[in-house]
Specification:
Helices cover about 45% and strands about 10% of the residues. The chain has helices at about 25-30, 30-45, 65, 85-90, 95-100, 100-110, 130-150, 165-175, 195-210, 220-225, 250-265, 280-305, 310-320; strands at about 5-10, 50-55, 115, 155, 180, 230, 235, 270-275, 305. Helix 8 links the parallel strand 4 and strand 5. Helix 2 packs parallel to helix 12, helix 7 (about 130-150) packs parallel to helix 8 and helix 11 (about 250-265) packs parallel to helix 12 (about 280-305). The longest helix has 22 residues, at about 280-305. Bound molecules: zinc ion (ZN). Zinc ion (ZN) binds near residues 11 and 118.
């Protein structure tokens, strides 16, 4: 029977500190305060289990509380502007855009969902300069604060989906069971490495509305691994766009069709986004999320399509192997 996985990269502002849109994103980030409770409520209504990959920094109340927990070994990126440690030196780190212990506590009150990690500092594994030891130090900090908050971290979502084979062994050694790998389709394939990034981005945007990569979902074989399970992404839920509103129904049709196909084939369909993506245009975004969840419910009744967290699915795969 097929599985439905929904994962959220919960990071507030930490994922965009190096990007020019930082200021413009603050509205999105502020909207997360309402978006998380709305999402939890909808998930309850339709029996959906969510996996939240949380940036470790978010578990603290403020900068003062965070500082004693910072690792000694920090990512030595060649580009200093991508490091949150450099950013913190030069920025007024306000609580609203950088910390969310109450929202994490709220998620924890719904034990059907999984609290996973998105690393401690939103760590980039493929960036030049950083080392595997620095990565391990980062994950250990994430585990430490999680443990203090009574959270058992089992799954990992790599920031910008940057993942390296040898880093997965570190994850396994620290007790992780799963991570979210890239989609398997051609737009994420290494064979297309030489295609310019801007062209790939454009094609991915078109693929949101038109099936240029076909129908995405994963088989058991595509998720199993000797290291930790690869609960592969099937699709990024692109938030509602006012500019593209005429073709929004195409996006929805594409997602619902892919879900139906996965349910019929017994595959896993893994949808992901960031809570701040739906922090604006909330009425439109939540109407779309609700129709996805409603469709899941139908597929659950008709085909036994089942909502699972990443760790639950990883444990099942282990059982199969
Ligand atoms: Zn991220």
């Amino acid at each position: 029977m097929g599985n439905f996985v929904v994962s959220l990269d919960f990071e507030l502002i930490w994922g965009v500190i190096d990007l020019p849109m930082l200021e413009g994103y603050k509205g999105n980030v502020r909207g997360v305060q309402q978006a998380i409770p709305r999402l939890l409520e909808l998930a309850d209504r339709y029996g959906i289990k969510l996996t939240f990959g949380v940036v470790g920094f978010l578990l603290f109340k403020n900068r003062k509380e965070l500082e004693p927990y910072l690792p000694e070994l920090r990512p030595s990126y060649l580009k200093p502007n991508i490091s949150p440690y450099t950013y913190m030196k030069n920025t007024d780190v306000d609580n609203e855009c950088h910390f969310a212990p109450d929202l994490v506590a709220m998620i924890k009150q719904h034990p059907q969902h999984e609290l996973a990690t998105h690393t401690f500092c939103h760590y980039y594994c493929m960036e030049a300069g950083q080392t595997i030891e620095e990565f391990e130090a980062d994950l250990k900090c994430a585990l430490k604060i999680a443990q203090e908050k009574g959270i058992d971290l089992k799954s990992l979502i790599f920031p910008r989906n940057q993942c390296k084979a040898e880093y997965l062994k570190i994850c396994k050694g620290l007790g992780f069971t799963s991570y979210r790998g890239n989609e398997t389709n051609m737009l994420h394939s290494e064979n297309y490495e030489n295609v310019p990034e801007i062209l790939k981005r454009m094609l991915r945007l078109i693929d949101t509305y038109l099936p240029i990569t076909g129908s995405n979902s994963s088989t058991v074989e595509e998720m199993e691994s000797d290291v930790i399970a690869n609960i592969r992404a099937s699709r990024f839920f692109r938030p509602y766009s006012n500019t593209l509103r005429i073709i929004e129904p195409l996006k929805m049709r594409r997602i619902l069709k892919e879900m139906t196909k996965a349910a019929k084939k017994g595959n896993t369909y893994h949808l992901w986004w960031h809570p701040h993506n739906v922090g604006i245009n909330q009425e439109e975004n939540f109407a779309q999320i609700e129709s996805i969840f409603r469709h899941y419910k139908r597929l659950n009744e008709e085909y036994g399509f089942e909502s699972k967290t990443m760790n639950e699915l990883a444990n099942e795969l282990k059982g199969n192997g």
